Amino acid sequence: MADILKGSVVAAKIKDDMRNNINTLGSAGKYPTLGIVRLGNNPSDVSYEKSIIKNCDAIGIKSEIFEKDINMTTEELANFINELNNNDNISGILLFRPLPKQIDEERIRNTILPSKDVDCMHPLNLEKIFEGDMSGFLPATPKAAMEILLQNNNELEGKNVVVINRSMVVGKPLAMMLLEKNATVTICHSRTKNLNEITKNADIVITALGKPKFFTKDYFSEDSIVIDVGVSMTDEGKLSGDVDYEDVVDYVDKITPVPGGVGSVTTTLLLNQVVNACMKN
Ligand code: NAP
């Protein structure tokens, strides 16, 4: 049976540090506050929002919800983001994406103040990561995968790590974070040939495909450490990762479950960045 790398254990450690920082800020009369901007009522946005608010309440972070017209223009959204940029009571801004088609996302990404950009949208914050500087805001999902590896004492230096995803929210920043820890990184995607040969020879495999139970035993070795970032639904309507957990769990060395793995660390890290933003501003 593989070691199960549970997200809750990693999240608990981050929350301990966060609580200390929130208390210190509170003694100085400062209260970390997340401004959530949602355009329209997309059910998955609303459900994500509820879970963020619950987490904020539980740890002592304030949240303010700004529900906006789904038909608003880029100009109107940019003006509103500027209001939040100038609002001293808002420590960090989270704008739900994808944005409606009429919005020029590039303009909005550039409007959000880098020092309040807790979701790491602004090109300046992303650029820092690609320059190997991890001291700023980091995208929460790849950072969650890193935290799970690091807190479980998995050596990264010199290890062969395969990342299956090349998006800007997961794969590309994750590859930079791994390089910064001196791992040897291979990025795979939908045009990669002989994927299972590449993953089988890796020390660590990080999957973020979004296809339920795609990775069976054939993709791993007995020494594989498997981090499953994917979240999707099976035909039976059950939440699943990219990895066929039941097939693989008795075979590989270590694995994250879904749910209960990467996802449970992601929101905690986002909130931690709100606290960091409040401390820095
Ligand atoms: P995305 O942009 O659609 O990326 C999917 C990646 O998988 C792409 O790079 C794609 O390659 C690659 N891919 C698709 N089919 C493949 C195949 N057969 N073989 C190899 N590679 C293949 O999605 P995303 O936004 O990055 O999210 C990816 C997954 O992570 C989703 O399941 C999402 O729900 C999950 N996610 C989880 C969290 C969390 O906190 N746990 C947060 C964010 C996202 P191409 O580039 O060639 O298309």
Provide an overview of this structure.
The chain has 281 residues and is of the alpha/beta class. It contains 10 helices and 11 strands. It has 2 domains: 29-114, Rossmann fold (3-Layer(aba) Sandwich), CATH 3.40.50; 140-263, Rossmann fold (3-Layer(aba) Sandwich). The protein has a 6-stranded parallel beta sheet. It has a 3-stranded parallel beta sheet with strand order 3-2-4, with helices on both faces. Helix 7 links the parallel strand 5 (160-164) and strand 6 (184-188). Helix 1 (7-27) packs parallel to helix 10 (262-280) and helix 6 (140-151) packs parallel to helix 7. The longest helix is centred in the first third of the chain and has 21 residues, at 7-27. It starts with a strand and ends with a helix. Bound molecules: NADP nicotinamide-adenine-dinucleotide phosphate. The site of NADP nicotinamide-adenine-dinucleotide phosphate has 24 residues, from helix 10.
Structural class: alpha/beta
From the alpha carbons, calculate the radius of gyration and give it in angstroms: 19 Å
User: Overall 3D geometry?
Assistant: globular
The CATH class assignment of the largest domain is Alpha Beta
| Total separate domains | 2
Low-pLDDT regions: none
> How many strands appear in the DSSP assignment?
11
| Number of helical elements | 10
| CATH topology value of the largest domain | Rossmann fold
Strand order of the largest sheet: 1-11-8-7-5-6
**How would a textbook summarize the main sheet?**
6 strands, parallel
The CATH homologous superfamily of the largest domain is called NAD(P)-binding Rossmann-like Domain
Report the end-to-end length measured between terminal Cα atoms. 47 Å
Q: Please write the string of helix (H) and strand (E) elements.
A: EHEHEHEHHHEHEHEEEEHEH
Q: What's the architecture of the largest domain in CATH terms? A: 3-Layer(aba) Sandwich
Mean pLDDT: 97
Beta-strand content: 15-25%
